[in-house]
């Protein structure tokens, strides 16, 4: 029952929405939820069938007793032998009949309530996707030229301020681009637009010259791998936690092991009680020793999910390394840059030792691009990047 509610939480909560859309794991979680729901309902039906049999028997018995009492009272009253006790018995019999009828009414009311809930549920499933979908979607081809943001602006509604304003950016295929900026500059929002969690309020995003709104969101996301700063820690096995990065290969243990090796998670998983079959959960022990991981270990597991899509056209790291120290983060990004050589990739990080690994760096300020170039070029420019770099350098030197 607790597992059923957990998968229901994953499917209906906001926290998991990004990864479910990106990795297309909704079907997998829904299947787990339905299987658990069927199991729970089967157990409930058995219990309810048992209870119903007794309810019918007791209801029949109650009605029989009430009927007999009613006949006896009439007969005795007809013969003039009705006493106070007889009257009491009559009242009790009538009360029993009323109780049985009331129970039936409660059951009918519950059935009606369930039918209304089912109607609301089916109506919810029938709601259209909030993203406008083209009637004739185009196939998503392998990225060969690059991604372009052309005059892209975005805000969540007319009542909200602009998060991005007139952003023009080209990311050549095969290049590693780093995004730099203070919190609230619009970096994560830009990533959400690339993944088509939202559509631009103004402007367009082009994939090899094709507006991404001409693709289905699901097919577009299959060409992209990403890990977010608020990545999820699934209460599932180590294998599932990694395999969810590419749901089609969730049972491909060789691919999962390779992804774990690339992220540095393989060794720690091998040391777990059941290896890749260890439940990384304190919620569902299932008769086994509960196992949880440290923040840094979870980070490696989450990064392995990204490496499940190492062959994707676009790979994104959106500041997922808060649980790592500077040295561990540097090693992770260095490993990432090496592994994705030749792939189009996007790095978001506050640490400049990481950012300088990119082929090109873009600085966002207040939702607008103010600088772009290599690490050395931006330092010579003496703008916002040089200022932020100097502040961080002083911090480490101090």
Write structural notes for this entry:
This protein is an alpha/beta fold. The model has no long low-confidence stretch (mean pLDDT 83). The protein has helices at 2-12, 17-23, 26-78, 84-125, 187-194, 217-222, 238-243, 253-263, 266-270, 295-307, 326-339, 352-355, 375-381, 384-397, and strands at 146-154, 164-172, 176-180, 202-207, 210-211, 224-227, 314-318, 344-348, 360-365, 368-373. Helix 1 (2-12) packs across helix 3 and helix 8 (253-263) crosses helix 10. The two termini are 54 Å apart. The protein has a six-stranded mixed beta sheet with strand order 6-7-8-3-9-10, with helices on both faces. A four-stranded antiparallel beta sheet has the order 2-1-4-5, with helices on one face. It has two domains: 2-125; 146-397, P-loop containing nucleotide triphosphate hydrolases (Rossmann fold, 3-Layer(aba) Sandwich), CATH 3.40.50.300. It is built from 14 helices and ten strands.
């Amino acid at each position: 029952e607790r597992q059923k509610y957990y998968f229901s939480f994953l499917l209906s909560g906001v926290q998991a929405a990004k990864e479910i859309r990106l990795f297309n794991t909704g079907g997998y979680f829904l299947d787990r939820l339905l299987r658990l729901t069927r199991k729970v309902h089967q157990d409930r039906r058995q219990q309810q069938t048992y209870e119903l049999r007794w309810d019918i028997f007791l209801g029949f018995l109650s009605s029989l007793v009430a009927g007999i009492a009613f006949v006896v009272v009439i007969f005795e009253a007809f013969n003039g032998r009705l006493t106070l006790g007889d009257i009491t018995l009559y009242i009790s019999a009538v009360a029993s009949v009323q109780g049985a009828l009331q129970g039936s009414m409660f059951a009918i009311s519950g059935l009606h309530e369930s039918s209304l809930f089912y109607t609301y549920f089916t109506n919810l499933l029938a709601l259209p996707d909030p993203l406008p979908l083209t009637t004739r979607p185009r196939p998503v081809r392998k990225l060969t030229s690059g991604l372009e943001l052309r005059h892209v602006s975005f805000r969540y509604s007319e009542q909200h301020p602009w998060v991005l304003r007139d952003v023009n950016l080209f990311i050549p295929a095969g290049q590693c681009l780093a995004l730099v900026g203070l919190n609230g500059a619009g970096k994560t929002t830009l990533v959400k637009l690339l993944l088509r969690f939202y559509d631009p309020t103004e402007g367009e995003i082009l994939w090899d010259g094709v507006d991404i709104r001409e693709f289905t969101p699901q097919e577009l996301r299959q060409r992209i791998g990403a890990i977010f700063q608020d990545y999820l820690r699934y209460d599932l096995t180590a294998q599932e936690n990694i395999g969810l990065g590419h749901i089609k290969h969730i049972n491909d243990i060789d691919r999962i092991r390779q992804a774990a090796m690339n992220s540095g998670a393989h060794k720690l998983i091998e040391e777990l009680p059941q290896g890749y079959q260890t439940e990384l959960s304190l919620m569902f022990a299932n008769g086994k020793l509960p196992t949880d991981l440290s923040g840094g270990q979870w980070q490696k597991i989450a990064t392995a999910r990204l490496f499940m899509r190492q062959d994707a056209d676009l790979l994104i790291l959106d500041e997922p390394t808060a649980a790592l120290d500077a040295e561990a983060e540097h090693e992770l990004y260095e490993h990432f840059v090496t592994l994705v050589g030749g792939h189009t990739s996007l790095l978001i990080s506050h640490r400049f030792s990481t950012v300088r690994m990119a082929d090109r760096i873009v600085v966002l300020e207040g939702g607008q691009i103010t600088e772009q170039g290599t690490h050395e070029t931006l330092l010579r420019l003496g703008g916002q990047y040089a200022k932020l770099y100097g502040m961080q350098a002083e911090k480490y030197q101090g």
